[in-house]
Structures are given as C-alpha cells and as structure tokens.
C-alpha cells in the first residue's frame, strides 16, 4: 500500500519519467568509457610505411598556361610558343620540323617533359596555308 501511494505521488508530480534519466546517463557514461578504452588500446599496425628516399613519380618542368602551335604547311615547319603560368618565367619558343599533329604533340611533350594528354589539353593550333 505504501508503494502504491508512492507511485501515485511520483505520477502526480511527473517524476516517474525524470528519475530514471540519471541512471541511464551513468550507464551510457560507463559503457562509453569501456568502449573507448577497448578501441584505443587495441594494436594498430600500418601496412604502408613512409619512404623518404624515393624520388617522386612525376616531374613537371614548368607550369604551362597555354601552348600555341602555328603550323606552316608551305614551309613544312611548326612554330611553338609556350606561355608559362608565372609571368616572371620566360616564354619558350621553338620550331618542330613537321606538320603532322600527332608528331607535333610528341615533340612538344618531349621538349617540355609532359605527358601527351596534358599537351592535348593545353595546345591551340593555327594552320597557315
């Protein structure tokens, strides 16, 4: 009977909901501590290790803004103008002794030490007849 009156009093005051919350909070706190300790104490092995003595796989001799190629079919040569991104660097000019587009791209790629795909993205052709 005493318990029944006690529950009615708790229900009347609205405390039957609020009283279990600290118990749940303490349970989550202890469970979280146990889980954190378990995760942080497990061994951690790395497969890939840092190798500082290896040279980079790519090398870009200059950062290029655009490449303009003037193809002179009458003379059989192509004049190439290279504009670097940095304005303080000198513009590069050179000639290629071919008018075939694929050969021009290969020659520019060798000269600038870049990939042919990068050259194709940057080059603009002007054909002079």
From TrEMBL:
Keywords: Membrane, Transmembrane, Transmembrane helix. This is Uncharacterized protein. It comes from the Bacteria. The chain crosses the membrane at residues 12-32.
């Amino acid at each position: 009977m005493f318990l029944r009156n006690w529950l009615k009093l708790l229900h009347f005051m609205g405390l039957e909901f609020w009283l279990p919350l600290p118990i749940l909070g303490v349970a989550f706190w202890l469970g979280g501590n146990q889980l954190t300790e378990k995760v942080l104490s497990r061994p951690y092995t790395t497969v890939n290790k840092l190798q500082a003595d290896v040279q980079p796989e790519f090398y870009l001799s200059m950062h290029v803004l655009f490449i303009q190629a003037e193809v002179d079919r009458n003379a059989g040569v192509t004049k190439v103008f290279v504009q670097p991104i940095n304005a303080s660097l000198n513009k590069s000019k050179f000639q290629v002794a071919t008018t075939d587009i694929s050969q021009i791209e290969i020659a520019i790629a060798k000269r600038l030490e870049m990939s042919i795909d990068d050259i194709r993205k940057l080059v603009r052709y002007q054909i002079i007849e």
